[in-house]
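Researcher: We're teaching a course module on how sequence relates to structure. For the next exercise, students receive a sequence and then see the predicted structure as tokens, so they can try to spot secondary structure elements on their own. Here is the exercise chain.
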Amino acid sequence: MKVMAAVSPLFYGPFYLLAIFAFITGKEWIRIPGLLWAWGCFLTVAAIILEEWDGDFPSPDFHLAALANAPYCIVPLFLIARLWGAHPFTVKK
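Model: And here is the predicted structure for the students to work with:
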């Protein structure tokens, strides 16, 4: 858990700045880093939710904990869907 907590500010923070720039300007080089971020975020939150459910210190209100963490599972899935194609910023005519 400590390692997962350290990943957020060290890696995800700089990624967010690059991703904002890339999405605003339509840079396709963000595709692979975006997919890696989405998969990593999804796995990290899945581990956290499992810990909340049946870990060493389970949450007294699992449903609330899962609901609070749900966006961190849903947003990466949307990003994977958006970046899955070879050219995510190309508009089809």
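Model: If you want an answer key for the exercise: Residues 38 and 77 are 7 Å apart (CA to CA). The helical segments are 2-25, 31-54, 62-69, 71-83.
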